């Protein structure tokens, strides 16, 4: 960083708007309050949940924005004591009040992990699995320098670590016991306890016709069980027990996705169930309906036939589905013929 020491550069970044009312929070962290919070400061006991928007800014002349959660429409949630991957956030959050807005200038050692954290948060905001595309590394961040994170700006920041400014807006602070934790923040026991409650809530929402909300509850319950299952040896008794708990939730999730018209998700999830439990009638029937919806007529007929052979009581429902499929195929054939006639005319 030029000819001076790293510390000198951090203390005087170009055009960084840190006013004289700066508070030093230990080595390498400085704070400036821009909006004073009105609520009393929390004790921030372990388990306290802070919901906030963050804007990450480079220490350059343009104050280049790296991330801004407010533009994504989803704030960050952090639970004190859960050892978040970027410890400096937990440290600075504990100096703030609800409603407060403040800027924090953090030296490089505090933000070395930020590119990886940012990648995960971006992928979550995009609805993707934050773990996809990552490879296992045992030697720390230095070994990641030759591995792309999938975002050019984060790759640059990873190769050239530098101080960062975090503009934090505290939206809400909730004391332990006043909220339900997200799956990632729960202990194993809390996850097991949450699953039946989430299942029940999902069922009630489904009965009320709130399909998207029900799907979210089922998905959350599945996430709890999946995180526990990852700790078990595949095929072991504990792994199988968890899988048997996941399956009905996944079938309920698929029912919601059928109603939402997301047929390929249904095909994927039902196939994953049938790969393990080939005689699962509900999975066969739902996959048959999904195949029918995307014009896979022979696959739909095969799944429906298999379902009826396992549960003859489904025959009337299957007959209805096959009749509707035949009618839709006939309509499509007529439409295609008319379209081809118009082309040749």
Describe this structure in words.
The chain has 345 residues and is α+β, with helices and mostly antiparallel strands. It has 2 domains: 6-112 and 161-174, Chitinase A, domain 3; 183-344, Tetratricopeptide repeat domain (Serine Threonine Protein Phosphatase 5, Tetratricopeptide repeat), CATH 1.25.40. It has 13 helices and 7 strands. Strands 1, 2, 3, 4, 5, 6 and 7 form a 7-stranded antiparallel sheet that branches. Strand 3 and strand 4 form a beta hairpin. Helix 10 runs antiparallel to helix 11 (281-293). The model is unreliable at 1-20 and 134-145 (pLDDT under 50).
Quick overview of this protein structure:
One of its GO terms (cellular component) is cytoplasm. With 345 residues, the chain is α+β, with helices and mostly antiparallel strands. The protein has helices at 6-11, 69-72, 87-93, 108-111, 114-125, 152-159, 188-207, 211-229, 237-259, 263-276, 281-293, 297-310, 315-344; strands spanning 23-24, 29-35, 49-58, 65-68, 76-79, 101-106, 164-174.
What is the H-and-E element order?
HEEEEHEHEHHHEHHHHHHH
Count the E strands: 7
Q: CA-to-CA gap between the ends?
A: 72 Å
Q: β content, as a range?
A: 5-15%
- Which oligomeric state applies? single chain
Q: Please state the structural category.
A: alpha+beta
Indicate the CATH topology of the largest domain: Serine Threonine Protein Phosphatase 5, Tetratricopeptide repeat
Q: Output the number of helix runs.
A: 13
Into how many domains do the coordinates divide?
Answer: 2
Tell me what the CATH architecture of the largest domain is. Alpha Horseshoe
